[in-house]
């Protein structure tokens, strides 16, 4: 027995010892590990990932795996994969297999041995007899209800049940008969005898064993009693020599039971002549991600109710789903490292995940051309029946990869419907009647004629090309502003494209009343049945990743039932189409993501302060709002576009204007000021309403507060909420527009700067700004600047 429990039988994922010392920016768990190593508390660090094989792993598990494996790797320690398989009813070997595969795929080296809690059942049982023998555990024959009731409440201590004082002999006899299968489920339980009055309810004689006549996927029918988590987990850790047992915060109170169990386990092992190890439990924040749900129970519900196609549905946060969507293990690991580990629960902006995915795919996914919504373009002056092939680079110049592919061109090509506008809005640099555009890597074409069917729908464009503009020829002829993707009709391959999007429309689908499933995004999957992709992808392996230029990152599907069909799953868009665009322009991740776009392929030129437009798929509702904002409210096409990329900003704007705030000024605030105070994507749950924003805008308009003051108010609204008017006075930001109050300050400033005043009077009127600035400063920034300017001119004039 002694060997059984203390023997070091690991071949775990190891590496040579490294120097693991405390560093700036180290998370609290690594800091703790470094301290343990420095103090010599452990020779080597052993961590574990302990999934229950009752579902597929999700990205929350990835966080735990990356953390546990990372610490073992960095310290030259070991990392164990162990199934916490103590619950026969929900576990299954297919889950276990998928989990092993997934952990491997993630690159977490567990050294080849998969551990199982079920393999320790015999040791756990013997330890239970040991506890009974020392009066530390007893068989309770109360009903579940009675046990619960006698446990007391937070304010009242628990009471003993009628069975707490059974003799050791009786307890042993009953426990053995429990194991032998003499009793039905629920007839008895084994409880630890700890402290019924403890303020920690979990210490009030926790359950150690229960009777379950159930088939276990690993031990079959050998057992009909099964240990509970709080008892089993510390023993599993101790047996495997785990040093740091990391779990999520909700287990904080369980730590007392963990320690109780480990302490007695050590005595037990010593009594048997062994040398026990001492694991410690530490808790960290579990990962919660916006716009999705994470618990296995809820994921199972989505799968079982057919709301998604299976555990590997690309919309799910399961690792299998993300894999199928085209996300790489490196991207997932980078994401987990980026978010770090902390001691308090927060929800993570899903934009961070998208960023990690784009950052990884940028240098991994070659660029190819694909047209999602093909519109036929006939090039009337291209020699009939001929074609030619361009040698097109697979990578943009800022990615240090090399290679090219042949790209065939002919007299009929497809372009995307969205790249043609019969009545182009201002700033539209793609194709329009009489207009010109460059076909990526090919020629400049001009649209000469628009062909429509009887229903008035555009079915074809007749264009002419300019042979002098052949890509790569020098000079390439004249420059045009737009470049668009295309596919030769004769050579292109029809394909299915699945545009996956967020599974839920609410950042926290589980918040609020009502069924969380009502927050499912009806547009989370849009299937395009007949897109056209360039022929170079024809023989690529399933699972190949691409950037379809100007469209997004895609991955060919690996599990489609039609082997001949070309199917592509969208992994991620090229940039964030959900969050406020202005916000992504300032946020760091988006800035980097911007590089993903090959500038030569982007066709829209925009004013500098605003982000370039991207093709955004709007819901019909948002589309209608865009039109209304531009027509009825007189916004520029740009502003209407930017405001209606997401429901939250459109709503915010609408509500503000409904309260009487002027549309154009309000649009400016929503587009340019909100991103400074709200995290990307946080608008929907912001602390203030559109009506309040509108009120603030009106306070600026009527001179109550200066623009600078209003910015301060907005920051406070975003932080803690509150009425703008009240905040203006609470923060002392009322704009002073009373000449009687300002004139004395103006006089004072002029008197203090008599020399400059003379210079001004002598003609150096450029000093006006100096005086206005001084007065503004003296007034705490609250003076009405126009009024100050007028007063200064009057006093000096
Ligand atoms: P869920 O609550 O999603 O059903 P679980 O905790 O029941 O998950 P387990 O198989 O018991 O799933 O978890 C295995 C390990 O993964 C545990 O150590 C657990 O703490 C960790 N883990 C589970 N979910 C998360 C998460 N969202 N963030 C970080 N770690 C997690
Ligand atoms: Mg669990």
UniProtKB/TrEMBL annotation:
<feature type="domain" description="Asn/Gln amidotransferase">
    <location>
        <begin position="651"/>
        <end position="796"/>
    </location>
</feature>
<feature type="binding site">
    <location>
        <position position="229"/>
    </location>
    <ligand>
        <name>L-glutamine</name>
    </ligand>
</feature>
<dbReference type="InterPro" id="IPR018027">
    <property type="entry name" value="Asn/Gln_amidotransferase"/>
</dbReference>
<keyword id="KW-0547">Nucleotide-binding</keyword>
<keyword id="KW-0648">Protein biosynthesis</keyword>
<dbReference type="GO" id="GO:0005524">
    <property type="term" value="F:ATP binding"/>
</dbReference>
<keyword id="KW-0436">Ligase</keyword>
<dbReference type="InterPro" id="IPR023168">
    <property type="entry name" value="GatB_Yqey_C_2"/>
</dbReference>
<dbReference type="GO" id="GO:0005829">
    <property type="term" value="C:cytosol"/>
</dbReference>
<dbReference type="InterPro" id="IPR003789">
    <property type="entry name" value="Asn/Gln_tRNA_amidoTrase-B-like"/>
</dbReference>
<keyword id="KW-0963">Cytoplasm</keyword>
<comment type="similarity">
    <text>Belongs to the GatB/GatE family. GatB subfamily.</text>
</comment>
<dbReference type="GO" id="GO:0016884">
    <property type="term" value="F:carbon-nitrogen ligase activity, with glutamine as amido-N-donor"/>
</dbReference>
<feature type="binding site">
    <location>
        <begin position="286"/>
        <end position="287"/>
    </location>
    <ligand>
        <name>ATP</name>
    </ligand>
</feature>
<feature type="compositionally biased region" description="Basic and acidic residues">
    <location>
        <begin position="1"/>
        <end position="12"/>
    </location>
</feature>
<keyword id="KW-0067">ATP-binding</keyword>
<dbReference type="InterPro" id="IPR001412">
    <property type="entry name" value="aa-tRNA-synth_I_CS"/>
</dbReference>
<dbReference type="Pfam" id="PF20974">
    <property type="entry name" value="tRNA-synt_1c_C2"/>
</dbReference>
<feature type="region of interest" description="Disordered">
    <location>
        <begin position="580"/>
        <end position="617"/>
    </location>
</feature>
<feature type="short sequence motif" description="'HIGH' region">
    <location>
        <begin position="51"/>
        <end position="61"/>
    </location>
</feature>
<dbReference type="InterPro" id="IPR000924">
    <property type="entry name" value="Glu/Gln-tRNA-synth"/>
</dbReference>
<dbReference type="GO" id="GO:0006424">
    <property type="term" value="P:glutamyl-tRNA aminoacylation"/>
</dbReference>
<keyword id="KW-0030">Aminoacyl-tRNA synthetase</keyword>
<feature type="short sequence motif" description="'KMSKS' region">
    <location>
        <begin position="293"/>
        <end position="297"/>
    </location>
</feature>
<feature type="compositionally biased region" description="Low complexity">
    <location>
        <begin position="580"/>
        <end position="590"/>
    </location>
</feature>
<dbReference type="InterPro" id="IPR004514">
    <property type="entry name" value="Gln-tRNA-synth"/>
</dbReference>
<feature type="region of interest" description="Disordered">
    <location>
        <begin position="1"/>
        <end position="21"/>
    </location>
</feature>
<comment type="similarity">
    <text>Belongs to the class-I aminoacyl-tRNA synthetase family.</text>
</comment>
<dbReference type="Pfam" id="PF00749">
    <property type="entry name" value="tRNA-synt_1c"/>
</dbReference>
<feature type="binding site">
    <location>
        <begin position="294"/>
        <end position="296"/>
    </location>
    <ligand>
        <name>ATP</name>
    </ligand>
</feature>
<dbReference type="GO" id="GO:0006425">
    <property type="term" value="P:glutaminyl-tRNA aminoacylation"/>
</dbReference>
<dbReference type="InterPro" id="IPR022861">
    <property type="entry name" value="Gln_tRNA_ligase_bac"/>
</dbReference>
<dbReference type="Pfam" id="PF03950">
    <property type="entry name" value="tRNA-synt_1c_C"/>
</dbReference>
<comment type="subunit">
    <text>Heterotrimer of A, B and C subunits.</text>
</comment>
<protein>
    <recommendedName>
        <fullName>Glutamine--tRNA ligase</fullName>
        <ecNumber>6.1.1.18</ecNumber>
    </recommendedName>
</protein>
<dbReference type="InterPro" id="IPR049437">
    <property type="entry name" value="tRNA-synt_1c_C2"/>
</dbReference>
<dbReference type="InterPro" id="IPR020061">
    <property type="entry name" value="Glu_tRNA_lig_a-bdl"/>
</dbReference>
<dbReference type="InterPro" id="IPR020056">
    <property type="entry name" value="Rbsml_bL25/Gln-tRNA_synth_N"/>
</dbReference>
<dbReference type="InterPro" id="IPR020059">
    <property type="entry name" value="Glu/Gln-tRNA-synth_Ib_codon-bd"/>
</dbReference>
<feature type="binding site">
    <location>
        <begin position="58"/>
        <end position="64"/>
    </location>
    <ligand>
        <name>ATP</name>
    </ligand>
</feature>
<dbReference type="InterPro" id="IPR014729">
    <property type="entry name" value="Rossmann-like_a/b/a_fold"/>
</dbReference>
<feature type="binding site">
    <location>
        <begin position="52"/>
        <end position="54"/>
    </location>
    <ligand>
        <name>ATP</name>
    </ligand>
</feature>
């Amino acid at each position: 027995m002694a060997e059984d429990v203390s023997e070091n039988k690991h071949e775990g994922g190891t590496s040579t010892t490294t120097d693991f010392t405390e560093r700036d920016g180290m998370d609290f768990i690594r800091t703790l590990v470094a301290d343990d190593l420095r103090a010599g508390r452990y020779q080597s660090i052993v961590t574990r990932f302990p999934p229950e094989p009752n579902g597929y792993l999700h990205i929350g598990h990835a966080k735990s795996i990356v953390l546990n494996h990372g610490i073992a790797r960095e310290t030259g320690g070991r990392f164990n994969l162990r199934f916490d398989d103590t619950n026969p009813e929900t576990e299954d070997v297919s889950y276990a297999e998928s989990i092993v595969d997934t952990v491997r795929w993630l690159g977490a080296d567990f050294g080849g041995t998969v551990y199982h809690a079920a393999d320790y059942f015999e040791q756990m049982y013997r330890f239970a007899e040991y506890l009974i023998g020392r009066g530390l555990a007893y068989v309770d024959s109360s009903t579940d209800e009675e046990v619960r009731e006698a446990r007391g409440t937070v304010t009242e201590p628990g009471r003993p049940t009628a069975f707490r004082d059974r003799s050791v002999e009786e307890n042993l006899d009953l426990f053995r008969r429990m194991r032998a299968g003499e009793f039905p489920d629920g007839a008895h339980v084994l409880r630890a005898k700890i402290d019924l009055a403890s303020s920690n309810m979990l210490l009030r004689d926790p359950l150690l064993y229960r009777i379950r006549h159930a088939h276990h996927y690993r031990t079959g029918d050998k057992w009909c009693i099964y240990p509970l988590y709080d008892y089993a987990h510390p023993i599993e850790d101790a047996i495997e020599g785990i040093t740091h047992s990391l779990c999520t915060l909700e287990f904080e109170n369980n730590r007392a039971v963990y320690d109780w169990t480990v302490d007695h386990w050590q005595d037990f092992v010593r009594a048997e002549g062994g040398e026990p190890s001492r694991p410690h439990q530490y808790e960290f924040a579990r990962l919660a991600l916006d716009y999705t749900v994470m618990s296995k129970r809820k994921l199972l519900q989505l799968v079982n109710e057919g709301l998604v196609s299976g555990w590997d549905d690309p919309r799910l946060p399961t690792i299998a789903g993300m894999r199928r969507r085209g996300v790489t293990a490196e991207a997932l690991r980078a994401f987990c490292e980026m978010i770090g580990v902390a001691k308090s629960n927060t929800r993570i902006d899903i934009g961070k995940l998208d960023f990690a995915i784009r950052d990884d795919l940028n240098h991994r996914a070659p660029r190819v051309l694909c047209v999602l919504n093909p519109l036929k373009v006939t090039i009337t002056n291209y020699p009939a029946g001929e074609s030619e092939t361009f040698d097109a680079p697979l990578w943009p110049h800022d990615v240090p990869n090399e290679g090219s592919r042949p790209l065939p061109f002919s007299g009929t090509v497809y372009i995307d419907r969205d790249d043609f506008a019969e009545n182009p809005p201002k700033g539209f640099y793609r194709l329009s009647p009489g207009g010109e555009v460059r076909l990526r890597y090919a020629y400049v074409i001009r649209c000469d004629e628009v062909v429509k069917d009887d229903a008035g729908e555009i079915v074809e464009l007749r264009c002419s090309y300019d042979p002098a503009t052949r890509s790569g020829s020098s000079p390439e002829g004249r420059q045009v502003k737009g470049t668009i993707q295309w596919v030769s009709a004769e050579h292109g391959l029809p394909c299915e494209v699945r545009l996956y999007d967020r599974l839920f429309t609410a950042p926290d689908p589980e918040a609020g009343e009502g069924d969380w499933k009502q927050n499912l995004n009806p547009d989370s999957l849009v299937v395009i049945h007949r897109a056209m992709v360039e022929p170079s992808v024809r023989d690529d392996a399933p699972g190949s990743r691409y950037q379809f230029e100007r469209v997004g990152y895609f991955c060919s599907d690996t599990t489609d039932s039609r082997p001949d069909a070309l199917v592509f799953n969208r992994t991620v868009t090229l940039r964030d189409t959900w969050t406020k665009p202005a916000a992504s322009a300032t946020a760091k991740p988006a800035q980097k993501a911007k590089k993903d776009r090959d500038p030569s392929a982007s066709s829209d030129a925009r004013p500098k302060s605003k982000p370039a437009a991207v093709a955004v798929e709007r819901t019909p509702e948002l589309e209608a709002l865009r039109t209304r904002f531009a027509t009825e409210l007189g916004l520029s096409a740009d502003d209407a576009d930017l405001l209606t990329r997401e429901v939250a900003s459109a709503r915010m704007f609408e509500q503000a204007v409904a309260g009487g705030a002027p549309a154009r000024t309000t649009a400016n605030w929503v587009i340019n000021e909100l991103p400074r105070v709200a995290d990307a994507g946080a608008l929907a749950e912001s602390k203030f309403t559109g009506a309040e924003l509108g009120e603030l805008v009106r306070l600026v308009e009527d001179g109550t507060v200066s623009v600078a003051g209003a910015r301060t108010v907005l920051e406070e609204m975003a932080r803690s909420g509150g009425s703008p008017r009240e905040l203006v006075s609470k923060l002392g930001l009322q704009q002073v527009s009373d000449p009687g109050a300002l004139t004395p300050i103006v006089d004072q400033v002029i008197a203090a700067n008599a020399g400059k005043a003379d210079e001004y009077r002598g003609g150096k009127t450029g000093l006006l700004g100096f005086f206005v600035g001084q007065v503004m400063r003296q007034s705490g920034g609250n003076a009405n600047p126009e009024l100050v300017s007028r007063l200064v001119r009057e006093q000096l004039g």
